[in-house]
Structure to design on (810 residues):
């Protein structure tokens, strides 16, 4: 269970996230959408305990991230956009390190082969991270997120650079995690993916929530019955007018 | 300890893998062995073998000052120098987190307090090595100096005792600096509004202290520069108060020799321990800001961190943020150069854009150091002439090395753009080397104009310097390119440091040939212009040879491997 209550994050004179509230229940996938600079990554980084919120509360499995960080983070897995990894660790060492941080070394030892297999990392297990391609790095980051048996997952643009097979497997992984009652928050620009995968979406623009709910609720709210998530998104974020004309025939 | 286990694991594995990576290919291993042998022969052996030749006639026993004051002055000078070195990083202790720390470590349940303690201890251990490194680089003069200042002391145990106290002082002072640096850094780098103001205030305060200290030293030294005056300066409150950490450390170091050993030791110890306590309290009170700061810096400066020391990438990053517009010289933009000469044109455009500040700085330094020798009295034979050559060699070395190291990183990055150009790889390499190697001509020409105006009688040396500068610059640049091709892992900071060290070694070895020829020719009475011409031809020949070898390596270079 993830609850975000009145989250605010300011950088000097700039408010990147402004009074954002939502919750993600167990067994639910919520998509966090928005144009570039809307505050999605900042919000996710606050929830992951990387950035210190200026105001607001974040509860992970009922534990307040501000006052009980260790317990709150204990059940959380975060996959950042284009993750920066420890280049000089091998693939296996990297996953082991994350498992050690979460004190789940036994889980790691029992599941490492399966995990490497699932993400086609077996042949790379003794290679340095520095030698991996962009897609393989992303797979490693996802493998690291799964190594400590978390039940709350944060994904920031998780499928960038992954091949179609990897994307399909990742989607299966998400559905499987959802079936196991995991709480999943995913930030993406792929609106059709969000439409198919997410139970609810939260749309941010300039740090503020402009819509929050299921697709049906958003359609009703915007009087756009039958419209796709993409159209609703463009309408809400005023991006349609800004879209460049690539081919003027 | 259990909570820090993953951090120990991470540090050990990354260090181990980095070392393993540095020595697992024969090319890297051979280079490492070469470098170690060179380092041992040049820096270590003379000091270890003992019985160095020393400087006859400069016996340390001749020091005419009370020894206690000399020791006090030397100890303060050393601690003050170390303090000033550490003062530079006082607002940025928290900036050396890697982007991977942000993406991987910070999202784990490991307490920020554990991470803070771990990093403090790690930084502290590294800091403790600083004087050791300085001592290793000059072990022989350090030992001579140490023996010299204690020559007048009756007590034979004094040097050992003072060394022990100095060691304890350094251990405490380093800890004081580390804790204080973390405390201040965490305070001034917050993402809230107040921190910018505090950061500015601390920056001004540090600058004022430094300016006051330097101005005071310069002012006092100008009145009379003998050793007694220097000792007097070192005891002044103008230095002792702002450099309080060095004062405490000095007080403790010299306490065994002091007339009041107990009070002296207590004062020094109490001062150092108080600073450590203050630093620790400041740091731990703000530990919750640590991840926030590191994450923001990682986002803002990810390119800077990744490309540390890479000016071009840094400026590109600045330009993307709209903070840098780039210098546009219209007269250069209209110049027409075709074929491989276009690479020279590109360099003429890029050098002022990428290295304008550095070029101006180097030109000023070059002017200063090149004009310095001609201020010597005229009756000193032709000594200033040789000094001019030496100073200009230093200028060429500095400019060419800086230019090449920055430029060739770009060459590696732009290989996909450059390789399809219609030239042979060796042609591309030669023109790349030439383009960067000719840059040092500018400060040299300027310096020599000034020299000839002030001392027309030294024109032969100026002409010789101008003959040597382009070829020496090209040779140094060729060495950098060769090493770059041998160690192209530019994204790995450890490999990059190794690359810098090997470049120096290559320049020393290769440069010995034309330098040796020049010295031999002068020794047999050849006119300086003829000797410089011969040395310049040899240097250019070697540079061309290296360019040809590098061309082969460049042809096979694939950035993806």
């Amino acid at each position: 269970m993830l609850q975000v209550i009145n989250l605010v994050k300011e950088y000097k004179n700039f408010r990147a996230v402004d009074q954002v509230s939502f919750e993600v229940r167990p067994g639910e996938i919520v998509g966090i959408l928005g144009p570039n600079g809307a505050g999605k990554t900042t919000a996710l980084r606050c929830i992951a305990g990387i950035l210190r919120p200026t105001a607001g509360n974040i509860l992970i499995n009922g534990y307040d991230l501000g006052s009980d960080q260790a317990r709150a983070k204990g059940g959380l897995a975060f996959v950042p956009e284009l993750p920066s990894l420890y280049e000089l660790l091998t693939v296996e060492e990297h996953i082991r390190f994350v498992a050690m941080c979460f004190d789940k070394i036994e889980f790691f030892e029992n599941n490492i082969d399966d995990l490497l297999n699932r993400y086609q990392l077996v042949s790379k297990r003794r290679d340095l991270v520095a030698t991996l391609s962009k897609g393989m790095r992303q797979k490693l980051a996802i493998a690291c997120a799964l190594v400590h048996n978390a039940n709350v997952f944060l994904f920031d643009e998780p499928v960038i650079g992954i091949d179609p097979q990897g994307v399909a497997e990742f989607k299966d992984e998400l559905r499987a995690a959802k079936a196991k009652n995991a709480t999943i928050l995913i930030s993406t620009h792929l609106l059709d993916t969000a439409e198919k995968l997410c139970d609810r979406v939260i749309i941010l623009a300039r740090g503020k929530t402009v819509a929050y709910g299921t697709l049906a609720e958003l359609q009703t709210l915007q009087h756009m019955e039958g419209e796709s998530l993409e159209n609703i998104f463009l309408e809400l974020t005023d991006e349609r007018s800004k879209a460049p004309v690539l081919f003027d025939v | 300890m259990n909570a820090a286990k993953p951090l120990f694991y991470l540090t050990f594995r990354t260090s181990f893998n980095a070392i393993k990576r540095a020595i697992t290919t024969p090319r890297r291993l051979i280079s490492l062995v070469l470098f170690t042998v060179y380092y041992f022969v040049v820096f270590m052996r003379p000091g270890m073998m003992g019985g160095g030749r020393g400087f006859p006639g400069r016996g340390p026993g001749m020091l005419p000052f009370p020894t206690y004051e000399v020791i006090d002055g030397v100890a303060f000078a050393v601690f003050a120098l170390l303090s000033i070195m550490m003062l530079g990083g006082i607002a940025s202790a928290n900036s050396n987190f890697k982007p991977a720390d942000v993406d991987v470590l910070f999202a784990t349940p490991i307490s920020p307090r554990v991470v803070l303690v771990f990093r403090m201890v790690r930084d502290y251990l590294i800091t403790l090595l600083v004087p050791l490194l300085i001592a290793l680089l000059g072990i022989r003069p350090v030992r001579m100096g140490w023996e010299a200042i204690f020559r007048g002391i009756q007590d034979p145990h004094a040097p050992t005792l003072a060394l022990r106290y100095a060691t304890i002082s350094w251990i405490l002072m380093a800890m004081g600096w580390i804790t204080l640096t973390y405390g201040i850094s965490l305070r001034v780098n917050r993402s809230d509004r107040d921190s910018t103001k505090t950061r500015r205030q601390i920056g001004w305060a540090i600058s004022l202290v430094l300016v006051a200290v330097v101005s005071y030293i310069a002012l006092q030294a100008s009145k009379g520069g003998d050793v007694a005056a220097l000792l007097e300066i070192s005891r002044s409150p103008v230095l002792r108060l702002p450099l309080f950490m060095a004062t405490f450390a000095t007080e403790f170091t010299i306490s065994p020799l002091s007339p009041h050993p107990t009070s002296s030791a207590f004062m020094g110890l109490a001062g150092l321990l108080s600073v450590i306590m203050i630093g620790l309290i400041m740091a731990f009170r703000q530990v919750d800001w640590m991840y926030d700061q590191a994450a923001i810096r990682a986002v803002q400066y990810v390119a800077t961190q990744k490309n540390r020391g890479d000016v071009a990438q840094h400026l590109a990053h600045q330009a993307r943020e709209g903070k840098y517009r780039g210098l546009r010289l219209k007269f250069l933009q209209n110049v027409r150069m075709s074929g491989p000469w276009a690479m020279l044109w590109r360099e003429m455009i890029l050098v002022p854009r990428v290295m304008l500040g550095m070029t101006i700085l180097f030109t000023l330094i070059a002017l200063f150091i090149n004009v310095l020798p001609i201020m010597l009295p005229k009756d000193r034979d032709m000594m200033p002439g040789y000094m001019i050559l030496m100073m200009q060699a230093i200028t060429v070395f500095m400019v060419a090395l800086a230019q090449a190291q920055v430029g060739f990183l770009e060459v590696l990055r732009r290989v996909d753009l450059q390789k399809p150009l219609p030239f042979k790889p060796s042609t591309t390499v030669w023109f790349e080397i030439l383009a960067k190697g000719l840059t040092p001509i500018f400060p040299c020409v300027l310096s020599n104009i000034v020299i000839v105006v002030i001392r027309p009688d030294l024109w032969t040396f100026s002409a010789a310097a101008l003959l040597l500068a382009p070829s020496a610059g090209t040779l140094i640049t060729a060495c950098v390119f060769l090493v770059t091709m041998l160690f192209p892992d530019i994204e790995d900071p450890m490999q990059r440091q190794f690359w810098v060290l090997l470049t120096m070694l290559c320049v020393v070895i290769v440069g010995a040939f034309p330098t040796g020829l020049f010295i031999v020719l002068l020794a047999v009475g050849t006119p300086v212009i003829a000797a410089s011409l011969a040395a310049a031809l040899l240097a250019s020949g070697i540079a061309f040879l290296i360019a040809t070898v590098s061309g082969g390596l460049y042809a096979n270079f694939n950035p993806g491997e």
In short: Residues 5 and 21 of chain A are 5 Å apart (CA to CA). The first strand of chain A starts at residue 2 and ends at 11.
